[in-house]
Amino acid sequence: MRKLLGIFVSLLLGFSLCYAKGSDILPTHSFSASFEAVHFDYDQTSGIDVEDYMYGTFGGYTYHDHGFIGIPLMFETDVEFATSNDMDTDGWYPDYSASGTPSKYVVGDSDNYLLEVRCLVGYDFSLGKHIVTPYIGYGYRYWNMDNPDLRDQTVAGNPQVPGFEQETEYHYSPIGVKTVSPINDKWLFKTMFEFDLLWDGKVEKNISDANSAYGDTKCELDFGDGYGFRFAVQLERKITQKISLWLEPYMKYWNIKESDQVGIPGSGLSVVEPKNDTTCWGIRLGGSLNF
To answer: Which residue in 280, 289, 244 sits closest to 36, CA to CA?
Structure first.
C-alpha cells in the first residue's frame, strides 16, 4: 500500500510539473479564425469524380486548464465551411430521365459546399520543452453536391443529363495527438496527427430533381463502413502577448465502403453509394486572440 501511495504521489507531482511547464506556452483561452484554400478530390470506384479548389473559413475556441479545474485538460471546438461553384465533375452517371436508367459518361460542373463541426477533449503533458496533447472527441461532416450542368459525352451534341442534389453526412470520433514546440520566445511549431473512426452516416440522393415520378433515397452508412485520417503542421508567430498569426498546411482523407442497396420509390429500381475516397490538401492563414 505504501508503495502504491508513493507511485500515486509521484504521478501527481509529475502531472503538476507538466501542467506548470505547459502553462508557460499554452494560453488558457484562445480564439482562432482563418481563411483557407483546399484542393478537394472525391473519387468513386464506379461512378463520378469531383475535383477542384474550394475556399472558405475556419474558426475555433480552445481552453487549456491552468488551475480552475486543477487537471491539465484541453477542450476545443471548431467549425469549418468551404464552398465552390463549377467544380469539375466527370464519370459514369445515372440518367434517371431515360428508360432503364442507363449510366452515361458525363463531363460538367457541380456546385459544392462542405461544413464540419468538431468538439475535442484532451490531456496536456510535457516532454522536455514540448507539450503533447492526446485527445478524443466527436465530429460531424456535411457535404452538399448539386449537379446543374452535366453533358453526355457518348452522344453527338453532348445533350444534358438531368442532375440531382446529393447530401452526405458523417458522424465520427476523432482520435489523435497534438504537439506544441517553442522555437524561441516568438515562434511556435505545432503538429496534429489524427485517425477518424466513422460511427454513422448517410447519403441522401434527391432523385426527384432528375425525374419527378421517382422518390428520393437514403443510403445508410454504419459503424465500420469507413475511416479517415488527417495531419497538419502549423507555424505560429506571437505579435503581442495576446495576438498571434499562423500558417497551417493540412491534409484530410476519407475512405468509405459501398453502401447497401436501397430501392428508388416509384421506379422498381435500386441504388447504392459506390465505394469512394476523398482527399483534401489545404492551407490556412489565420490569427488567434489569446488570454
So the answer is: 280
| CA–CA separation, 32 and 93 (whole Å) | 41
Which residue in the block uniquely carries the three cell numbers 472525391?
42
> What pLDDT shows up at residue 8?
36
Residue ranges in 49-136 assigned as alpha helix (H): none
Those residues with Cβ within 8 angstroms of residue 12's Cβ, 6 or more apart along the chain or in another chain = none
Number of H helices, E strands in the chain: 1, 15
The reported pTM is 0.89
Rounded to the nearest 5 degrees, what angle is found at the Cα of 289, between the Cα atoms of 285 and 291?
150
Helix, strand, coil content of the chain in percent (nearest 5): 10, 65, 25
**Which three cell numbers mark 48?**
463520378
- For 2-290, CATH number out of 3.30.9.10, 2.40.128.90, 3.30.420.10, 3.40.50.2000 equals 2.40.128.90
Highest averaged pLDDT of the listed ranges 18-22, 66-70, 207-211, 248-252? 248-252
**pLDDT recorded at residue 95:** 86
